[in-house]
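Example record used in the benchmark description.
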Amino acid sequence: MTDHRPYDPLIDVLGSFSITAWWPVRAVVLALGAVAVVAAVRALRRPASPVVRTLTVTAAVLLALLTVGGVVNAHYAYVPTLGEALGDASSLSSSADGGGRIPAKGQVVPLTVAPTTSNFSARQAQVYLPPAWFARHRPALPVIMLLHGEPGDPSDWTDGGEAAATADAWAAQHHGVAPVLVMPDINGSLTADTECVDSPVGNAETYLTVDVPAAVQQQFGTLPPGRSWALAGLSEGGSCAIMLTLRHPDLFSTFGDYAGLSGPRVGDTDADTDSTVTGLFGGSRQAFAAHEPAELLATGDPAFRTLGGWFEVGGDDGDPLAAAQRLAPLATAAGISTCLVVAPGGGHTFDVWSAAFRRSLPWMTARLGLVAADPQMTAGCQA
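Model output (structure tokens):
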């Protein structure tokens, strides 16, 4: 992002202050939770005016919610630093007024996608535009769509996922050139779970494969879907990425599955398929199988031989680890250029997912035609 503010060392230090890894922060969060419980109990027991009791209980509830949010954030490393918690309100116009000069960093801008075909009620998408996008003679750039999980929203990838920072670092080494990163909403709300399929929950698959690509090309002049488009995602978004790529190999040439399950699941485990069949596919096992990556890979579709897939998962991540270890060999057998990376000791957290995107980005950019392929791009990757 273009930022014309003067350098302030205090802001720089505070901005990098960890709010997840530093142990005293977690201790303070737990202490606040204890204070909230004690305050609520005392307020209810002591005789006091209704106004005082209401204010005390309200403050205790807010403190408890802050505590729960802090614990969740500490576990998933969703917002790892104070700087990310405070955010940055840059706008597209602030970077676009440089007379065609390429800025030092890219910019994240909002994108409203008209659900013309899908009628899917989505939240606002986000788009990362690399420095080269602002050049006077703008190149047509490839696209990586980044899909969030559940619960979650598009900002997950710019916050805990650190996608913009990762892309900026890549662009800095390649004359400002990097893929356009498109971060659409896949669920419609914080608690909904579409699994990226067309269902009673919403026509998410049509939205992601028709409406989003159309809006991105029209508004940002990117290369068209196909060889120059990739899909990657974390958790639910990871299983969406492989599923959508296998179902639409004409639209996406590459996928990144970071800790996804074996396919669409409305629950948190691979074993729970009955509720998925009922809730998303109207009880049809045939429709469920048509969205199950293992079933799709078994079809022997010749189009799969042009695809590439990167699986990355934490070594302590249970079902997602088992899913990756099952699907990666099937993908290889289907002719897909496949990588499998297991992060030792990693869990189901943004630490793993942000590292997975950072590690796989060079490989993806080569597959999308931005740079020449290099064996080092897949170093440490089990094919």
